[in-house]
Amino acid sequence: MLLEDKTAVVYGGAGSVGAAVARAFAREGARVVLAGRTLATLDRVATEIAGAGGAVETAQLDALDERAVDEHADALAQRAGGIDVSFNAIRYGDVHGAPLLEMPFEDFARPITTAMRAQFLTMRAAARHMTRQGSGVIMAITAATARLAIPEIGGTGVTFDAIESLCRQWACELGGYGVRVLWLQTTGLPEAITDEVHPAYGTGSATGITRAELIAWMERSTMLNRLTSLAEVGNVAAFLASDRAAPMTAAAANLTCGQVPAR
Fold first, then answer.
1. Are 2 and 215 spatial neighbours (Cβ–Cβ below 8 Å)?
2. How far apart are the first and last CA of the chain?
3. What are the tens digits of pLDDT across the range 3-37?
4. Fewer beta carbons below 10 Å: N end or C end of the chain?
């Protein structure tokens, strides 16, 4: 197994991405800690992982609370003997469907400030322990919107671009300690798209589009004519967290199905 005897923290572990990554980590032998604000949803994911034979625990935690993040990381590292993997998949409160001309600054800035605070705090908390042990992997998730210009997505693209830049800075400062920093860049994730009417973005519709129409539109923008699945995100995350990806840092795993060609 790729992650046998590793301890992995997944912030936002009850969300669609966090749960998929946690399942993959556990399947590969890691002891997974699901961290998030709502214990009931964390417990549902934990029950599923445990039922499949995985080692898992939960922790009620707000990733925006500096003291809580640090105290949890300190306690976990002391109890487990260290932290090997940290993955942040919390939600940022993005607002879509309105042009910037009509968007309140608070709606535009919310995902940016939320992401920067949560990512910085969780990365720093893990890095303080990883640098002492001389190893570790810190990961985040972004999307094609970090590299594409798409109308009416508010601060989402700026948020993902900022996360990628933050990862590069952490990578250059932590590399000498044997700590790697990576991010997964995806398409939209179809399993995470709800059955409501969605903003039309650049499709030409003046009234919004359905889930099926949105997925079809996004699929047409990729070279493979399909979107990344949650299972694929988890599988690649587990590989990147493992020693088989040891030479990789300050890099993205491009999971955009060709939507964003590598440069």
1. no
2. 32
3. 999 999 999 999 999 999 999 999 999 999 999 99
4. C
